[in-house]
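Proteins fold reproducibly. Consider a sample protein:
=====
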Amino acid sequence: MSTPSPIRIAAVLSPEHRGRLMSHAREVNFPEGARIFDEGTPSESFWIVRSGTVTLQIPASGGRRPAPVENLGPGELVGWSWLFPPYVWQLSAEAMTPVRAYEFDATSVRMLMDADPTFGSAIGHWVGRVLAMRLQQTRTRLLDLYAPRAAAGS
C-alpha cells in the first residue's frame, strides 16, 4: 500500500523554495490514533511529516472502519485540499504511530504563493504531483475494495 515517495519535499522543491516554505512552519505532534482531519471538514492547515506514519483513509458507510488509501512518512505532504476551493478535505487522515510534523497555515501559504509567482508555481506543481499520486492510490484502493472478484476455480 505504501512505496517510497518520489514527491517528498526535499526531492521536489529547490532549497530556496523549501526554505521559504519551512520558514512558515510550526512543529506539532499527534499521538497514535489521533484524527488529523476528516473528509468534508474545512482544510485550513497542511502538514509535512517529520517522523511517524499518517494513514490517508476513505470514510466507510455503515459503521465500518475507514479504508486506508496510503501511508505517509517523513518528508511527505499531508493534505492537498487546502490549495483548491472550496478548501474542504476530500479524504481523512489518522496518525497510525506518534507523529511529529510541520504544520502550515493554508491561508498564509496561499498568500505567499500569490505574492511570488515563481514560489507559487513551485508549490502548485508539487501539490499537483502529490494530488495525482494520491488519486491513483485511491483508485487502486477502491478497485481492491469494490471490484468484482473472479469466482473461485475460474
About this structure: The first helix runs from residue 9 to 12.
